Queue: 2 jobs
Job 1
Amino acid sequence: MTIAFDGKKAARNRAGLGNYSRFVITALARRFPDVRFDVYVSRKGDNGLLRPLMELPNVNIRYPSHPVLKYFPRLWERYGIVRELRRHGADIYHGLGNELPANIRKAQGTHALVTIHDLIFLFFPHTYSWIDRHILNLKFRSACRKAERIVAVSRCTARDIVKYYFIPKNRISVAYQGCDPRFREKCSESVMEDVRKRLSLPERYILSVGTIEERKNTALIVRALPAIPELSLVIVGKRTAYTSYVEATAKECKVQDRVHILSGVDTADLPAVYRMADVFVYPSRYEGFGIPVLEALCSGVPVISATGSCLEEAGGDAAIYVDPDSVEELTRKIVQVLTDRTLRNTMVRKGYVYSSGFTEEVLADRLMEIYRQCIDSSAS
């Protein structure tokens, strides 16, 4: 069997869809050593993030062979990949980042799948320019129509695809995301202390991880801080225009000295940052899955998240969920987790158990099951 992947995000994105792509390819290649995995990348210079994949014996990086298209990467991604699929052969082509080549149906004998992560641009249209929103909608809608099967990263995303793109439920399969195995590993005291000093972390803190943007609703945590004087708030994520609002909210609440915003944190330091937190809070209004919730559960940190999207899938019965508009409820739950040792221990224990269902092996097995269903359905 040969499985082919769109490698654009794996080669160029350090976080988000890049992490997902590399995680999926690595998990499958390790789990199924007898299967060949081809990763299609438009430029040979995009090798830095791919090096770990290139070391796997059953993974091949495929570059443009066309003498002209190799100079036009976007054109190759839209049309040239199908030519390569015909040349090298593939049972499955999986678009890992919400899109498929425009002519994918011409790849005869290859079953096309696409992973749809979320439809954020439809729920928060004002955070995108008109042209970006229009392009994303066209790409997503086209990919959903052309794919033989759609892989949704949560049941919530699957429902959104049915609702907004009128895709039959029987063409959608849910395969949850996983997180880097390093979050399951213990951190020594010396490592944690080193990270604390280098990042100037406070002794006790609430942690929130993710791009600092409006839908993440980080200001809600800031508004809860005045009632929790013993803790600071550490926010790890890329700054956006919303960051100014978070900082203004901190000044308004007179807690600016207790709010620490860290951007560009090395992923190797993140497990220690999680493990030193007193509680992880993620009151996002909308997510496709919510990997930070899973990272926190793997790290042994109690999680408080929000109702309304997929986060109850990411955290299961191990987390506590609050109304994303209620400062009072969030404050009450943070205080409860900090003061009720029995509750805290139960949440940590449940977190380890629940997160064990999101390992590399579980994801790889689920995706391979979906691939084989596609192949078997055409043979019957």
Note: The domain at 2-178+359-379 is CATH 3.40.50.2000 (Rossmann fold).
Job 2
Amino acid sequence: MQLHYDMLQKVSRTFALSIEQLTSPLRDAATLAYLLFRVSDCLEDHDSLSVPRKIELLDVWARILAGELQVQALTNQIKDLDDNDPEVFVAQKAGEILAQLAELPQEAQSLILTHAYATTVGMARWQAHGPFVENEAALDDYMHEVAGRVGYLLTELFAWYWPSIRARKSTLMPLSRESGLALQTVNIIRGMRKDYERGWVFVPESFLTRVGLTRDSLFDVQNLDKGLLIIDMLAEKAAHHLENGFLFLLALPKHRHAIRLACMWPFFFAVRTLAISRDNPNVLLNEAKISRADVKDIIIKTKLFGWSNVWLKHYYQTLGDVKTRA
């Protein structure tokens, strides 16, 4: 598994930090699941791939995950991609990831393959749809495919491994989707400029119409005032999803501190990112990122006090300057 842990570190330090808190075999399962999802991400996002080729490769990958094709049907087709890109390296090692997955208990394998297949099919559908989002419902649909399903998968893996979480599964599952949508909405805010430069605008066109902007004029420096109104709309949406994501954290058993930490860190990173993105023109001009000091503060404080729901409520309010109904 060491190669796969190294891959995880290279493609996402944030989620590597979280997954490292888990004990095996849950840690192994979460690592392999994340890497399989990143294969799909690579095929969806790679700059040099045309849309028709992306759709074709995603379809091949989905059929591999469904057991209909051998993994070489994909890896032979992406040999031309530069493996200095960590995501490409992961995609080209898809066969080794699947082989390691086969060492896990059957139930864990089934959960991972089912959700990885579903998100891959969803990504292919959105590539065929095109780089625009009509309204908030369409945005939620996209975010469900790329992030909501991740929330479902992790919760099902937690429930598979721990009976105490299994007992709360009916409460946790809908909130886990909301947690995924929360992180993705913040990612969309944080990455608006870069997404635009690669041809995608995830801001709903209904939002743009409301303030008299287009997908191109949104990023014009002369329209910063209107652009900040768009950021505020997205921030309010993110805050709503974060509120439900916070309920997910509170519903996790207190004595499962490692799992709570694994979920807390990306959540609180998102809370802080949203706080610094509000009324921030850098979101449109470049990017807004939290500092290393913020990351360190979140990690240290949650390790010490994250077992307490009372403390979590206070920290959530302080970190994001938000009000909570929890």
Note: Residues 131-326 form a domain with the Farnesyl Diphosphate Synthase fold (CATH 1.10.600.10).
